[in-house]
Amino acid sequence: MLDLNLTFEIWHLFIYSFVSIAALGFSALSLWLATDQSKKIVEHNKISVMPLLGLNVIQNNNKIFLTEVKNNGLGTAIIESLTVFMDGVQIENKNAILTALDKIFDESRYDIEAYGMIENTNDSANFSKDQSFGLFKIEGKDGNEITQQDIKSLKRIVIEIRYKSLYGEKGKLCSTRHISEWL
């Protein structure tokens, strides 16, 4: 005959083993869920602090034409490069925007300013939420107005700004659109 004490000990050992294995399983599951949740939080934080650069063009009574770039996103934009193309050819110098504008606009009729904040493309610049910087300003001299033909001539210039977020996600502004199309 079976000894009841032995049967009880076997069942007791079986239950303890089962509970121990179940506890290990629940612990592993909890660890996996916590790790997965942490990854999702980091991913959410990356998305929620993404910069989003946008180009604003301001034209005032055909006398002033101003372009500025504004960070409309929530995170800081780290400008990696500013590249200027004219007629599809990259202009490679420190004042590329000014060089391109001088080739298009007559200096006797217009005051042209290209802002040097990020002209040196070897240096990076940081722009936080709602911060903006001017690219260039064209103003008519002695009552001269900026004509639609002058604005259309801006189609020859393409400005490409490459930037990244604090987490390293990359972004690009103005790579294929001409400035005159923003009006």
Write a short abstract of this structure:
This protein is an alpha+beta fold and 183 residues long.
Could you please describe the fold and organization of this structure?
The chain has helices at 4-48, 96-104, 148-152; strands spanning 53-60, 64-71, 77-86, 89-91, 110-114, 125-127, 132-140, 157-164, 170-173. It is an alpha+beta fold and 183 residues long. The strands form 2 sheets. Strands 3, 4, 6, 8 and 9 form a 5-stranded antiparallel sheet that branches. It has a 4-stranded antiparallel sheet with strand order 1-2-7-5, covered by helices on one side. The protein is rod-shaped. The protein starts with a helix and ends in a 10-residue tail after the last strand. The mean pLDDT is 81.
Question: Characteristics of this structure?
Answer:
183 residues, alpha+beta, 5-stranded antiparallel β-sheet, 4-stranded antiparallel β-sheet, 3 helices, 9 strands, rod-shaped
